[in-house]
Amino acid sequence: MGNNSQTALGCALYQELLNESDADRILNQLIRAISASDLNLDFGILGAKYVPNALAEAGYPEVAYEMIHTTDYPGWGHWITQGATTLWESWDGGGSQLHIMYGDVSAWMYKYLAGIQPDPENPGFKHFYIRPFVPDDLEWVKAEHQSPFGKIVSSWKKKN
């Protein structure tokens, strides 16, 4: 964590490598690092999993969403402005343009935007929670997951 990188800070939080007394300080450090970069992503494939999940799990899904949603380079939103309809192998579009390297963002959307969240006490979605995060600029979400115990569907739409 000494290099103050988004990946290192996010990893420490996501993997619960910290004492409880240090977690708030490291979370604030991560949020400051993200703010200092104007919400720009400063990570590769590991940080792409750790940072958004760590932020959302700590109660800051809006920060993760804004990072995911930004159209600045590098990032998923930037890919969309470049015409992407798939996940690419690298932020600059080099290599494969149908690759899963940065694909954990899809799981993040199921878990936080749709809100389909497993219960850690009941593996395999035997029991689950529906807890969607509803960003101001998103009008609707619909997602489904075929679990070993049946299909789970979450759908929300803003009205008025």
Q: How would you describe this structure in keywords?
A:
160 residues; alpha+beta; 6 helices; 4 strands; single chain; two-stranded antiparallel ribbon
In terms of quaternary structure, what is this?
single chain
- The unreliable regions are none
What does the main sheet amount to?
2 strands, antiparallel
Total strands: 4
Helix content: 40-55%
**How are the strands of the largest sheet arranged?**
1-2
Beta-strand residue fraction: 5-15%
Q: Which shape, going by the Cα principal axes?
A: globular
> What is the distance, rounded to the nearest whole angstrom, between the alpha carbons of the first and last residues?
45 Å
Give helix and strand order, one letter per element, not per position: HHHHHHEEEE
Rg from C-alpha positions? 16 Å
Helix count, per DSSP? 6
What structural class do helix, strand and pairing data support? alpha+beta
Mean pLDDT: 95
Can you describe this structure in just a few lines?
The protein is of the alpha+beta class and 160 residues long.
Structural description of this entry:
With 160 residues, the chain is of the alpha+beta class. It has 6 helices and 4 strands; from the N terminus they run ααααααββββ. The strands form 2 sheets. A two-stranded antiparallel sheet has the order 1-2. Strands 3-4 form a two-stranded antiparallel ribbon. The longest helix is centred in the N-terminal third of the chain and has 17 residues, at 20-36. The relative contact order is 0.10. The mean pLDDT is 95.
